[in-house]
Amino acid sequence: MARALTLCGSIRKGSYNEILRRHVSGKLVEAGAEVEDIDLGDYALPIFNEDIEAEGMPAAAVALAEKFAAADIVFIASPEYNSGASPLIVNTISWISRQRLGQFRKPVFGLGAVSSGKYGAIVGIGHLRDSLLKLGALVTPTLLGIGPARDAFDETGAPREEAIAKKVDQQVRELIHFSRGGI
Ligand SMILES: Cc1cc2nc3c(=O)[nH]c(=O)nc-3n(C[C@H](O)[C@H](O)[C@H](O)COP(=O)(O)O)c2cc1C
Prior knowledge:
Organism: Arsenicitalea aurantiaca
Bound molecules: flavin mononucleotide
Number of domains: 1
Protein name: NADPH-dependent oxidoreductase
CATH architecture: 3-Layer(aba) Sandwich
CATH topology: Rossmann fold
Shape: globular
Radius of gyration: 15 Å
Number of helices: 6
Pfam family, one: FMN_red
Strand content: 15-25%
Domain NADPH-dependent FMN reductase-like: 3-143
Structural class: alpha/beta
CATH class: Alpha Beta
Order of helices and strands: EHEHHEEEHEHEEH
Distance between the termini: 5 Å
GO molecular function: FMN binding; oxidoreductase activity
Number of strands: 8
């Protein structure tokens, strides 16, 4: 059974990306994966600074890197800020990248982004993908760029647009297909 992690690059109450994370998590469970949902609010990390690192690696950075290294699938839903990736996700990846556990090479990564704009944060998600590729990660060909956020999900948290629902299903299929967990 493939082991999947899901996390969100926004810890805002009412985050649209958190709605997407929850939806994809449910789809991964339906697909047969064993899923752990991570709340980055539970893994508070200082803004990355090599001086802090020299004083000792924060326990949250080690714990997250270990979870990535043990996962076959990592799904990240994360907003775009000023056409870049969210500061929370950049900071989290910076800290995780300082471990040497194969944490970016073992899992396959699926990325999603929900934004208030109609272009669905596709620029920010591209930056995040480039960064992960540079770290040696495999990222699914299908990216979920969803917008405008306000109209994107129904009251159950499912995508309103059929085309988006199909894209989610496609990405989940790719995650299972490319994962090394062997469902
Ligand atoms: C500082 C800041 C910068 C933003 N930049 C962008 C942007 O470049 N592109 C975009 O589509 N939305 C942008 N937004 C709007 C976010 O897409 C929107 O706030 C989104 O709901 C945040 O995700 P969340 O609901 O998961 O917290 C920005 C929002 C903030 C606060």
